[in-house]
Amino acid sequence: MSFLEHLEQLRWHLIRATVAILIGGTVAFIAKGIIFDVLLFGPKDVNFPTYQILCNISRAIGLDESFCLEEIPYTLQSRTVAGQFSAHMWTSITAGFIIAFPYVIYEFWKFISPGLYDNERKTAGGFIWISSLLFFIGVLFGYYVVTPLSLRFLGSYQVSAVVLNEFDIGSYIGMVRASVLASGLIFELPIIIYFLTKIGLVTPEFLRKYRKMSLVVVLILSAVITPPDVTSQIIVAIPVLVLYEISIFISKRVIKNQKKKEAEAKANRSK
């Protein structure tokens, strides 16, 4: 196909993916009670599972009660006329993207699959399943780990007793949304490394060489998306470092398979 024909193909893939997101967003818009009262405002409840687990762990290892949350020291409010409606709309779109993510990945795969080998196209189901699984694990990690840690620290932080923590609903939802989506995309690291290795931009040697630098980047990233305390940063950094090591293994397997195919092709030509 010509360049313009490829663009036309891409346009239709993007249109279908967008329609899927809008359908998911419509479902989320209708299910307002579940999305807001149960999910979004869940981390605002002192009985949220993460707070209970942190409290139980601190008691089990003999720490003080600082990890136990007895009250939520902040309130939410809407200070603009369209604040709540805007929050409802953008939250529905975000939820629609999360719901439709497997189909979005499917459309992405359909676009790039013509440039792959037959045996690689046969792995479409596995690719979609693994990508979706990693993304949903990341979303859950962001929701149950990053979000409550951030809210717990920032919600109780005060420069002075004179200043009350009364957060705008847009700010609260924006932080939850950023934590969840950022974590979901970070957990796609093995998939990204797979494609970068396929096109020759990354090798296992490169990943091993810059492992220490990657550790620094991960710690900086953890500091950005979590509150500035060491415990929270370590909790977030550990799974990312594990994903990095998995990515090295994946890159090694890709290179090994490529060399095997090249050797087989060379042997066939020599015959």
Could you walk me through the main structural features you see in this protein, from its secondary elements to its overall organization?
Belongs to the TatC family. Helices cover 76% and strands 2% of the residues. The protein is built from 12 helices and 2 strands. It has helices spanning 3-30, 32-40, 49-60, 83-99, 101-112, 118-121, 124-156, 169-186, 189-198, 204-209, 211-225, 230-270; strands at 75-77, 166-168. A two-stranded parallel sheet has the order 1-2.
SSE map:
Blueprint: H1 3-30, H2 32-40, H3 49-60, E1 75-77, H4 83-99, H5 101-112, H6 118-121, H7 124-156, E2 166-168, H8 169-186, H9 189-198, H10 204-209, H11 211-225, H12 230-270
